[in-house]
């Protein structure tokens, strides 16, 4: 399996990301040890310049991670023909135990990298770089996750045997299944809709209250951060439960990946893109709330939070519109 | 945002002021991408071509096994097989391999049933110059065979397996190169000639093809056949498809791995080029920093320079590979891949664009390039602002 | 006295801890008065260029304070130091430091490229400044096609594009003949009349012997030998 070109590309990508992550942690640890903003020695200047290198590397890591997430889904889709019974990406991911784990790990790493960049951004706004040590400790904690993900991914592909009989998505998502995915799919459409629009209303309400409140610091920020994650999970569940079937116009096809394909006008990209982006901005705004107690960045954080909250609201509204579009405008009815 | 646009503009002008250096990097990168893409495109074309042919093959091919090896199959099986529910048409096939010591090549010999030939004719009419053999003493050959033997239509074609077993056939048809992927090493002759040539017993065939009326019952039918003849091996079309798919992916992957050395060498070259920025470039970055550009502005400039170079090389490479594979029949690559078989098929692949492959290629080429250029550009960007004053 | 910049006990050490350690500036305290012309005078190697760089936020001092418009910038990370420099200072370098292959207008606008300024506004500013310096005709000429004097004026235009409060010049007459040096001085005094603070590091008597030079700081071996506000 390992010689499939797509698998090769993924493994190469993981190795590159790992090397870059290790390198930046190595630099980060040196910074944690040697950092002293009150000195303007040559050594401090070198460390300061290395922060630019780490920031640059992490931006690339995030970029590669996003690409790798897509490539992973595409590759799973491309190899589904090799498994008896696998009709699509879902089938390939079911082919062994860690297929889904790898996908989740990639999503988690995406969020972790993005949150790191959010903290980094806030830190760089203050003249005394108040979060320097914290952010590099966080970075060091990130590396084991990246290692684990690379290891799982390798194991997933090494463990694939082309003749393994797997369940395809229609049986994975069929009502008799016991998996989480199948219970998502068996959610009654109307119930799923109530849940989704309810959660969306709460999310948007929280964000707009925070936007209006402006500079007042408030525990609501944290609540909105946590709720964003809840809303993210509910949204993914809803895509499986009802958004997908409205786009496919068949009551049993719940695959969350097929909407990325050409026959559905690539609608999956703006759908997932706006969801991930919206969640990310609201999560970032919540994470940096904690640093408001530091004087040198308080005002900067207010501005940043405001910007990110607006971004989040806009993106989530776009997401909700895309998810709702076929429900309103297609002739397909999932219930009657 | 405005600054962003102007930095991109400056990146373009900066690249154009060092045309020779940047063009040489881009040219080498493009060629490398073109080679990699050619391999993937060609493999993919082979794969789709093969799978397309499999489409028209029967659902089940039944082979007889003896001591774990493929053995001729008794024709008496047919009556039992036709009794299984869901089974459609059953056809025994006669074929084999012949090693021609004269040309050191392996041919695939295949029989057409003289009675059945009229039926086959319709199907193959586009793929052949001449016709399918109809009577004893006639044959049709693949273009590879014709080329290696240097013979053509109406010539004589002689094969021998010792004094007893030899045939002298008249060539009545040559398969066109469009179908070369399957017919390249093929010799088609009548059943009688083949049976005589291989000295096969009259009550046996090489294998039996079975059509199944309802595709979803294929596995059930196969299971029933196994029960009736535990010695037999039913090969399902779907299994074949999967195996071919796997093999072609594997081949592509192996070749890619072999070329990894080339990528690595290129990365070192890029590293070298980018780190060894010449005095003038260093001076320019020094000036930028002195007049108020910040380290991250220079990093952005370097990012755009890298992006412009790698994306334009990527596009050029893809276009080169596309032209190479689909308009020039992969002329430069074929000799390398020929090692796999003396009669390597020559065929005109159908042009296609596959986004997934482009994405894979992007990951294999642009991502390492970009990653390799991070540290050198950072080094350039963190020069002292007051360096130009010293 | 209203000082735009105050340096307090500033030192700059290169290659600290190594065999070739150099103390280019050692314990210097100076003040740059607002709206006047200050000359840093002294032979080459006396540390005046290094001091000019420190005052102009090009680099950070190893020790001491540098107070620009009331704010100590000595410990600022490069990112913020650059920001202060962008807003406050315009530099005229000894070797012009123009980028060959770019036109005059591009060279002049270059400092503003990464900023948030509107492109039209940037263009306008450039045309205005080049007009004042009599370079309008050379707007789209490649910089290397210009004469020495024109290049010097282009370099001055670039130093002014960010509308700085303080213009710093490092040996501005080193590569000019007497006539061009005179022209340069005229431009500089004109800028001073417009209210800009000027600091010139030079050992050219043509400059520091001019009667209208307000403030001369004489340096030797990295220290201030004599500071006189005339």
From TrEMBL, chain A:
This is Uncharacterized protein. The keyword Lipid metabolism does not apply. It comes from Candidatus Magnetominusculus xianensis. The chain crosses the membrane at residues 6-32, 52-74, 97-118, 138-154, 191-211, 223-247, 267-288, 308-328. Coiled coil: none annotated. Keywords: Membrane, Transmembrane, Transmembrane helix.
UniProtKB/TrEMBL annotation, chain B:
The keyword Transmembrane applies. Its main location: membrane. Keywords: Cell membrane, Membrane, Transmembrane, Transmembrane helix. Residues 258-385 form the ABC3 transporter permease C-terminal domain. The chain crosses the membrane at residues 23-46, 250-271, 308-328, 355-375. It is a multi-pass membrane protein. Belongs to the ABC-4 integral membrane protein family. LolC/E subfamily. This is ABC transporter permease.
From TrEMBL, chain C:
Belongs to the ABC transporter superfamily. GO terms for molecular function: ATP binding. The keyword Nucleotide-binding applies. Residues 5-230 form the ABC transporter domain. Keywords: ATP-binding, Nucleotide-binding, Transport. This is ABC transporter ATP-binding protein. It holds the Pfam family ABC_tran. It comes from the Bacteria. It comes from Candidatus Magnetominusculus xianensis. The keyword Nucleotide-binding applies. InterPro entries: AAA+_ATPase, ABC_transporter-like_ATP-bd, ABC_transporter-like_CS, MacB-like_ATP-bd, P-loop_NTPase.
